[in-house]
Amino acid sequence: MIRVLHLPDNIEKRNGRMSVIMSIYRKLDRSKIQFDFACTDYGFENFEDEIKELGGNVYKIPSTENSFKNIKSMVNELLKTGRYSFLHYHALSKWGCTLGIANKYHVKTIVHSHATELSDTLFKSIRNRIFSLNIFNNGDKLVAVSPEAGK
């Protein structure tokens, strides 16, 4: 079975990315491909129960402990088990700091762009540009929902 560790930042129901991921997940042949999720728990209504019903696992870091160090530690522990064939990174966030860890364990990385802009504010644009620096050096497959999102 192929296991994919998704890094969507969060698994909230109000997150459009997660709605798309869950739509795909529900239709997969889960005897061949299974999704797990590593994410930040911000405390909002989320897909955790449904993910577990579908056979996936959810690994959460509380938002109060959402540091680069804790994220790297969690993903390192998950990837070193050898369970994962792919790491799928979905959002410009701190979670991108783990792409190099995937290379260490020979886990293929998929970097998926959903957005056409880095942000609607200058501060977040700068922050997100910094988050994206790791992508080109460590992404095995770069995919986007549109040509604009790919840029």
Descriptive report:
The chain is an alpha/beta fold and 151 residues long. It has helices spanning 16-27, 48-53, 68-79, 99-104, 122-132, 135-138, 147-150, and strands spanning 2-7, 33-41, 58-62, 86-89, 108-113, 141-144. It has a 6-stranded parallel sheet. Helix 4 links the parallel strand 4 and strand 5 (108-113). The protein is globular and about 45 Å long.
Features:
6 strands; alpha/beta; globular; 7 helices; 151 residues; 36% helix; six-stranded parallel β-sheet; Rossmann fold
List the helices and strands and how they pair.
Layout: E1 2-7, H1 16-27, E2 33-41, H2 48-53, E3 58-62, H3 68-79, E4 86-89, H4 99-104, E5 108-113, H5 122-132, H6 135-138, E6 141-144, H7 147-150
Parallel strand pairs: 1-2, 1-4, 2-3, 4-5, 5-6
**CATH classification, class level:** Alpha Beta
SSE run:
EHEHEHEHEHHEH
- Tally of contiguous helical segments: 7
Helical/strand content category: alpha/beta
Largest sheet: 6 strands, parallel
Report how far apart the termini are.
Answer: 33 Å
Low-confidence stretches: none
The strand count comes to 6
Shape verdict: globular
Q: Major sheet: order of its strands?
A: 3-2-1-4-5-6
CATH topology: Rossmann fold
Q: State the helical fraction.
A: 25-40%
Q: What fraction of residues sit in β-strands?
A: 15-25%
The domain tally reads 1
Which superfamily, in CATH terms, is the homologous superfamily? Glycogen Phosphorylase B
Average pLDDT, rounded to a whole number, is: 87
CATH architecture: 3-Layer(aba) Sandwich
